Amino acid sequence: MDAVLSGLNTFLDPSTLFFLAAGVIAGLVVGVIPGLGGTAAVAVLLPFIFVLDAPQAMALIIGAVAVVHHSDAIASILLGIPGSSSAAVLLLDGHVMAKQGKGAKALSLAFMSSMAGGLIGAIGLTLAIPIARPLVLMFGSPEIFMLTVLGISLTALLSKGNLVKGLVAGAFGVLLGQVGAAPASPDYRFTFGNLALSNGLDLVAVALSIFGIAEIIHLVAKKTAVAEVTSIGTGWLEGVRDFFPNFVHVLRGSLVGIWAGVLPGVGATAGTWMAYGQAQATAKGKSRKKFGKGDPRGVIAPEGAANSVEAGDLIPTLLFGIPGGAPAALLLGALLIFGIEPGPRIITDHLDLIYVIIWSFGIASVVGSLLCFVIAKPLSMLSFVRFPLLAAGLIPILFMAGFQGSLQIQMVPLMLILGVVGWFMKEFDYPRAPFLIGFVLSIPMERYYYLTDNLYSFSEWATRPGVLVMAAILLIPIVMAIVRMIRKRLGYVKEQTSTESDLGEDHAPRTWAIVVAGIFFIIFAGGFVIAQQYAEAARLMPNIITVLGAILSLAAVFNEARRLKKGPARTDEARASWKKVLVVTLASTLWLLGFVVLIYVFGMAIACIVYVPLFLWFVAKAKWWVIPIYTVALVALLLIAQQFAGISLPDGYIYLGI
């Protein structure tokens, strides 16, 4: 109880409330823009935490996480375009209601359900602490090491799509996490003599690159508006009235969401579809047939789950140090920045901070929902703007944010490289959440392994009950995958072969997929060769990861080659469409490269003055009078942030006199 009251007292501090409000506003704005989502919202805010205290930083981040699913419903319902992957389920009933002139009612139901889901999720997190606390305090280094392995592996194994690709992505993240000083020896690994890499790759820069810059490359290439304007319609109060008789669906959906959040790798997308499925399955009689035709229950259940998933994800993240998704991985990284290790340490030393997070999540859910009722219409207008017009401002902000962690100008071109890597991962179906979780947990996994190895013999730590339980949990999805594979080979399950229509005309051809898998193999093989020059303690973990990653990459090559052999021949239209995708993507990348060069030479401020007008004129096709206003406003915003928010802008080599 003392920790609860202490957390509440810290939460009620005016500075904490201010940063909570800032996080809520940022989360609502980012959430409404299709393609960005919670990961981008947290990543953009991370650079600001370096000048904050831990409670203020947590309030800022949780404020964004708690509300991003409120506003991503706007694009799904009004536009028929998912604001995020988890909001895609709202197309079934929410968008249908908007077409029927009941857009306001659907939004009202979504906002109320998100608020309830957030509150139920906060309650679930509160109840989990006394239940899990005795278990967590029993954990030693062997159990914590196995938890890190479990977190990376389960997220990859349970990711949507190809199991092998998920594991390759997780191994790649762990390998990049090995860059910099080794925790058990004086070696600097994979730095190639570059001092800027001696402290490792910065989490903020990596996350913004793999997710944010990759999405910008993808969306700028389209050069189209996100959607045409759709009327919100009427029915705000009707939605509020319909919410209460259907509260049981919110409760069930929220419980499903908490469970989906607790399980690593399941996440909000699977959680919302599971909630929708249970709502449909528990519907009585002929009312089940109303789903997909504008049934309010088809909005209420998944929206309750969407927000409670994030609260559920905080349970393994805070109590065990195992993030289940990308936003939680960034939150874990933020805690580590303040020297706070999730798991036993946070429960014994920083329990009040957990309650600050809980209070922040619950209050942000309420405030975010109320704000959405007021600003839903103006927020929705962001989705009607052509993305290149938004990108002209997002590009400088992302590079500025990624610069804050290391304050090394070399990180700017590295962000572009990682952004291209993120685009390839997205295009060729390598899930990026396992990559980010692997990156975050790489050093903790290595550190706890060495600690375990020094304190126990292998037979001692490998036979501990907690380790055996986690090993069994890890083996379950692997055994299930092997059983499914055997059943397919024996003909008990019909193997689905992709057709040209399934893939889409602009989907990457299998030959390219083989090449990408081969590149991953080369990266892992090269990493293994380079690691041999390090001391034994420094090369042990890289050796394990590179060997494992190389084997998995070869398996991915084999899988893609087998699909190429079994799949249909690509049509001329598909080849032409893919070439067009490559051309426009290359053009987007070159524009970003031009901005990086300008930053390198002249610094951020002058680069924006030169780059933004050119981008607005040639790419965004903005009106002439918009260009000077847009440019002045953006440069002023960056300079104000530099002056009053402690933000650093990269100086070019001309300024540095180099």
Could you name the key traits of this structure?
single chain, 658 residues, mainly alpha, 3 domains, two-stranded antiparallel sheet, 28 helices, 2 strands, 74% helix, membrane, transmembrane
Describe this protein's structure:
This protein is mainly α and 658 residues long. The protein folds into three domains: 2-444, no CATH class; 464-494; 578-656, no CATH class. The chain has 28 helices and two strands. α2 (14-32) packs parallel to α4, α4 (54-79) packs antiparallel against α6 and α4 packs antiparallel against α14.
Give the arrangement of secondary structure elements.
Layout: H1 2-11, H2 14-32, H3 37-45, H4 54-79, H5 90-99, H6 103-137, H7 141-157, H8 163-177, E1 180-181, E2 188-189, H9 203-220, H10 236-243, H11 247-262, H12 267-281, H13 297-320, H14 326-337, H15 344-349, H16 351-380, H17 387-403, H18 411-427, H19 432-455, H20 458-462, H21 465-490, H22 500-503, H23 510-531, H24 536-566, H25 572-602, H26 604-618, H27 626-644, H28 653-656
Antiparallel strand pairs: 1-2
Helix pairs in contact: 1-16, 2-3, 2-4, 2-16, 3-4, 3-9, 3-14, 4-5, 4-6, 4-13, 4-14, 4-16, 5-6, 5-13, 6-10, 6-11, 6-13, 6-16, 7-8, 7-19, 7-21, 8-19, 8-24, 9-17, 9-18, 9-19, 9-25, 11-12, 11-13, 12-13, 13-14, 14-19, 17-26, 18-25, 23-24, 25-26, 26-27
